[in-house]
């Protein structure tokens, strides 16, 4: 395994605790919330002590929260205090008139779109920004820590117990997979730009390979690290030396780049969410 490829695999593990409240925005933020709520619903079927948003009290049986109430509960202000969404949402209502009354009977992409497109009537802001880790998963201090643990209730469900369990588990797993794809796509976009800018490579030097495309929701093209470096160094008068220096330069640049560390930490957390949910 090349040093660069090894670095790309290990960097997420080294930096899993990077950052604090910042979660995904837009489509990514909406997809995260779909996954969070499926974990919340999975715990209802598991019984026992609730760990996902245990303080959320709503109008569903047993005082449990519907999606709107859940989204209000986990909301957290934007960090720099300059946006209108520093004002807590008053009454979120993401559903449309003809939507299924049962959230679990909506498609994952439809649920994601409802959350992503919703604009708060009071703040005139979307609701896909920050989350409060302590409210969503008490004992967690970072968004990445929440994401890394949130798949466990989904993975623990026995889908043979009932139709509800089967639907929630399957949808929850799809939600975890799609979130990983969205995060991977975002990270790959950053990595492409990073390499082109910081390593003085041209667009034609990057060799790509297809990744997953869960539910046709996020087509991911991955950089083929080995093929790219092989192609870029083959004509150099000392390919081995050039390859070594190139890899060391890129690895060091990624170690010291804040955005690279953030992407690495989130990808690692999304991996853990998939594993926790029992995705194969």
Structure description:
By secondary structure, the chain is an all-alpha fold. Helix content is 53%, strand content 2%. It has 11 helices and 2 strands; from the N terminus they run H-H-H-H-H-H-H-H-E-E-H-H-H. It has helices at 3-14, 26-46, 67-74, 108-117, 133-136, 143-149, 152-156, 163-198, 225-233, 239-255, 258-276, and strands at residues 208-210, 221-223. A two-stranded antiparallel ribbon has the order 1-2. Helix 2 (26-46) packs antiparallel against helix 8. The radius of gyration is 21 Å and the shape is elongated. The two termini are 24 Å apart. The relative contact order is 0.18.
List keywords for this structure.
mainly alpha; disordered N terminus; 280 residues; single chain; 2 strands; elongated; 11 helices; two-stranded antiparallel sheet
Secondary structure layout plus pairing:
Layout: H1 3-14, H2 26-46, H3 67-74, H4 108-117, H5 133-136, H6 143-149, H7 152-156, H8 163-198, E1 208-210, E2 221-223, H9 225-233, H10 239-255, H11 258-276
Antiparallel strand pairs: 1-2
Helix pairs in contact: 1-10, 1-11, 2-4, 2-8, 6-11, 8-11
Tell me the strand percentage band. under 5%
Task: Please describe the biggest sheet, giving its number of strands, its sense, and whether it closes into a barrel.
Answer: 2 strands, antiparallel
| Secondary structure tally: strands | 2
Distance between termini?
Answer: 24 Å
Order of helices and strands: HHHHHHHHEEHHH
Q: How many helical elements?
A: 11
Walk across the major sheet and give the strand order: 1-2
Average pLDDT figure: 83
- The percent range for helix content is 40-55%
Shape: elongated
